[in-house]
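ok, trying the design again with the full structure, not the truncated one.
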């Protein structure tokens, strides 16, 4: 990998990187650019990832999005498999109109509703939304939706032995006939012609002897500090609901009438991907599960785009240089994170974990003893906690009232985790509930939404960590200091939390500010106990 290759700057945030940059990235197969653009070869009418091992072609053009390449008549490469590319997180996340619309499309917003409904949810007109997509993505929203479904189907056909009917359902097609027609029109082959062998299915592996485990690859853009991610999750793992060891994360997933399990670990042979093992979910839930895990493990982040902003700050620059692969550790379920944030108010991580374990065991749905080792119950639903007697698990009256109030607000729709909400709107709704202050609302946004700009300024650890001279900034001063970190303040939080528990080295000079070209990825993992 060429460390001297420049990254796209802010001037390219609404379009392609410079053509020369694309050329260099393609020829050097730079994984940092994976998903940031796609290369389309004129002679073969095939489009590829920048990391494709195929020989370099002479006549190519570049596209911002896979959907734009397919709209221009190109087919996805069978060798580098564009469906494995991470999304471009530098413009796909946050509160911009296109970012929120893209997240809604990821959740299937266009599967059963027209474009007008999507436009209404993000607060713009249909024509304006279409124009924004064409300008910034290179294709209309419907093209993004269609490509997303077909590429996911292509991954399932390539990596699993799922029946083609189930592949069609998993990709969001209402019938096998519609799926076959769409696949043939886009890729000029029938779905069955793509299938090679059942490489993604293994029998008798994982929990539940004799069971089928579906295995999928979840790509990311390096560097990625998976050890640090596991470290964070391990310190907060909820006994009976999830389990984290040195190499993997495992948890039970709903719904209540068809629970399943999943395990996430590093993909073998050092590839830039995580390995997802799934057992039990219905085919129609597969795409939602994959999207949840991509958010939970922050797989679409662009580390260099984040570093470009944070490294302008003298306090953050050496932290990012030391741990360039830190990501936002999110959670599987928003309500679960919200309840655990309330339980963790003004107590240690260990105490909050103990309370959460009692709550899950007392009010969660129990599972069969043979379900999976270490997984014993689902986390309670809002309905289970709305009127629960929480004094039985040792909660104070005030905390119990807040948990019940949040559960009722979820049931009534006064608070939610809807993708189209901006950070400001989300926090405003949550602080309107009794017992929920700005810190808790921002913490929930950080851990439940994975919002890249969430910032709990009232956090005492942050207030002491930013000055790094023993002094403390107030919330107002901290917010002013963090204004320059937008739209990646959440990543600054993770860097500072992790650093706050590491004793400062003796007589070590502050690291110089690094340019993007000098940032050679280095992965480090150091265990610490961060707030809640």
């Amino acid at each position: 990998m060429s460390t001297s290759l420049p990254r796209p700057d802010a001037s390219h945030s609404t379009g392609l990187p410079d053509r020369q940059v694309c050329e260099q990235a393609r020829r050097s197969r730079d994984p940092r650019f994976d998903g940031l653009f796609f290369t389309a070869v004129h002679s073969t009418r095939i489009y590829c990832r920048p990391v494709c091992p195929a020989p370099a072609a002479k006549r190519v053009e570049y596209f911002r999005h896979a959907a734009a390449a397919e709209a221009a008549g190109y087919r996805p490469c069978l060798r580098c498999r564009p469906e494995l590319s991470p999304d471009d997180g530098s413009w796909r996340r946050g509160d911009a109109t296109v970012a929120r619309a893209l997240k809604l499309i990821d959740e299937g917003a266009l599967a059963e509703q027209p474009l007008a409904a999507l436009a209404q949810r993000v607060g713009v007109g249909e024509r304006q939304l279409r124009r924004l997509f064409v300008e910034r993505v290179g294709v209309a929203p419907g093209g993004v939706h269609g490509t997303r479904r077909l590429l996911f189907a292509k991954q399932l056909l390539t990596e699993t032995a799922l029946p083609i009917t189930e592949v069609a359902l998993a990709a969001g097609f209402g019938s096998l006939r519609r799926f076959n027609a769409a696949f043939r029109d886009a890729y000029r082959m029938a779905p069955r012609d793509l299938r090679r062998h059942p490489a993604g299915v293994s029998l008798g592996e994982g929990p539940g002897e004799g069971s089928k485990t579906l295995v999928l690859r979840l790509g990311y853009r390096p560097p990625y500090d998976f050890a640090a991610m596991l470290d964070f999750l391990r310190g907060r793992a909820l006994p009976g609901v999830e389990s984290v060891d040195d190499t993997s994360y495992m948890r039970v997933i709903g719904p209540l009438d068809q629970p399943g399990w999943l395990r996430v670990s590093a993909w073998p042979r050092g590839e830039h991907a995580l390995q997802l093992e799934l057992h039990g979910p219905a085919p129609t839930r597969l795409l939602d599960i994959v999207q949840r895990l991509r958010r939970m493990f922050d797989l679409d982040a662009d580390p260099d785009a984040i570093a470009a902003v944070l490294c302008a700050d003298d306090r953050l620059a050496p932290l990012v240089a030391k741990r360039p692969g830190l990501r936002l550790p999110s959670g599987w379920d928003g309500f679960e994170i919200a309840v655990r944030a309330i339980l963790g108010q003004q107590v240690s991580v260990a105490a909050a974990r103990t309370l959460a374990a009692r709550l899950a065991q007392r009010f969660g749905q129990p599972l069969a003893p043979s379900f999976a080792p270490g997984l014993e119950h689902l986390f309670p639903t809002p309905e289970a906690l709305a009127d629960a007697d929480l004094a039985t698990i040792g909660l104070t009256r005030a905390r119990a009232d807040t948990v019940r109030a949040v559960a009722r607000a979820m049931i009534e729709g006064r608070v939610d985790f809807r993708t189209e909400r901006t950070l400001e709107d989300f926090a405003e709704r949550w602080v309107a509930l009794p017992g929920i202050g700005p810190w808790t609302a921002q913490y929930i946004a950080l851990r439940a939404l994975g919002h890249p700009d969430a910032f709990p300024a009232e956090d005492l650890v942050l207030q002491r960590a930013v000055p790094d001279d023993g002094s403390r900034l107030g919330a107002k001063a901290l917010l002013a200091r963090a204004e320059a970190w937008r739209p990646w303040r959440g990543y600054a939080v993770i860097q500072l939390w992790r650093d706050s528990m590491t004793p400062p080295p003796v007589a070590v000079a502050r690291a110089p500010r690094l340019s993007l070209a000098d940032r050679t990825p280095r992965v480090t993992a150091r265990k610490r106990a961060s707030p809640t």
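Keeping the full-length input from now on. The first strand starts at residue 38 and ends at 41.
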